[in-house]
Amino acid sequence: MKKELLIIIPAYNEGQNIRNVLTQVEGLGLSEVADILVINDASTDSTNWIVKEMQYPMISQLFNMGYGCALQTGYKYAVRRGYKYVIQMDGDGQHDVCNIPMIYNKLKEADEEGRYPDIVLGARFRKDSSDFPVSWPKKVVYSLFRGMISIVTKEKISDPTTGLQGLSRKAFLYYSKYNHFDDKYPDANMLVLMLLIRFKVVEIPAVMHARTAGKSMHSGLKPFWYMLRVMYSTIIIIFRVKFLKMDVEVGLKSVDKI
């Protein structure tokens, strides 16, 4: 039976977390509609061996190419295998698996105009979201990104850096193409792009947990370098869409015309 949902889990040195994450996802009982794919971004710990031991499908990058590249590898896989939806979640255990059915259902829920979401964000900072501790450097970065998105797109996004997302085929097909996705830090910059070219982005409250093992790619003062990288990428995106008119309103087209 062909399944319509692919759950993508990018992982880099998540040997302390990946077994529990996979076990919890499997426990949801979505095996009739969903497949699981781990993207091992050249981990140097036990991540590779744990996933093989548990017999889950996995793509292993030969070199550590970054979070965005790992995700895009998953999108390309989803395109070629004919999946209708993708849900991406991190392999560190921060994204509670209870969010997966809610995102999946939201992707299939049309609005009053009959339009379905292209991107569903699992947000940490909405009214009904669970409590989530955030360091002061990250609070500064998140506030700047919220303001940037609001000014550029006139849309309000409470959690502009969430990695917990559901994508329609139209969205991940677009992301899978060359030069359509940031290979390092695909966060607020990608939301700016998708909103400007008229993809439908919605948020739902999410349950998330603080990392208990392993090391975050945004630890220490790295958030400030990350912020500069994303801001630069956003400027390029604004220039491409606003001035060069690249992909304007592509989000309103049907999948086979993208």
The fourth-level CATH homologous superfamily is Spore Coat Polysaccharide Biosynthesis Protein SpsA, Chain A
CATH overall fold name: Spore Coat Polysaccharide Biosynthesis Protein SpsA, Chain A
User: Can you tell me the CATH architecture?
Assistant: Alpha-Beta Complex
What's the N-to-C terminus distance?
27 Å
Number of helices: 8
Oligomer: single chain
Instruction: Give the biggest beta sheet.
Output: 7 strands, mixed
Kindly give the count of domains.
1
Counting helices, strands and paired strands, the structural category is alpha/beta
Strand tally:
7
Q: Which geometry do the CA atoms define?
A: globular
Low-confidence stretches: none
State the share of residues found in helices, binned by percent.
25-40%
Describe the structure.
The protein has 258 residues and is an alpha/beta fold. The chain has one domain (5-257): Spore Coat Polysaccharide Biosynthesis Protein SpsA, Chain A, CATH 3.90.550. It is built from eight helices and seven strands, in the order βαβαβαβαβαβααβα. It has helices spanning 18-26, 47-54, 67-81, 99-107, 136-153, 169-175, 188-196, 222-243, and strands at residues 5-11, 34-40, 58-60, 85-88, 119-123, 165-168, 201-205. A seven-stranded mixed sheet has the order 3-2-1-4-6-5-7, sandwiched between helices. Helix 2 (47-54) links the parallel strand 2 and strand 3. Helix 3 (67-81) crosses helix 6 (169-175), helix 5 (136-153) packs parallel to helix 8 (222-243) and helix 7 packs parallel to helix 8. The two termini are 27 Å apart. The model has no long low-confidence stretch (mean pLDDT 93).
